[in-house]
Amino acid sequence: MGYGLAAIGPAIGVGIVVGKTIEGVARQPELAGRLQVLMWIGIAFTEALAFIGIATYFIFTS
């Protein structure tokens, strides 16, 4: 249950990152390549929060 709650934040974060990238590409189509790279970096950092959440779960339950 704890990890399920910890996964909500990264899920919302990834949704925001992808949504803003789509919005940026719609405004500036010529920057699609750069925005996509930045999107993947943002997703990686956001998913790091999920890994921290699962590590914290294992630390506190053992």
UniProtKB/TrEMBL annotation:
Protein name: ATP synthase subunit c
The entry's keywords: ATP synthesis, Cell membrane, CF(0), Hydrogen ion transport, Ion transport, Lipid-binding, Membrane, Transmembrane, Transmembrane helix, Transport
Record Gene3D superfamilies: F1F0 ATP synthase subunit C
Keyword Membrane attributed: yes
Span of domain V-ATPase proteolipid subunit C-like: 3-59
Subcellular location: Cell membrane; Membrane
Record site feature (Reversibly protonated during proton transport), residues: E47
TM annotation in the entry: 37-60
Family stated for the protein in its record: Belongs to the ATPase C chain family.
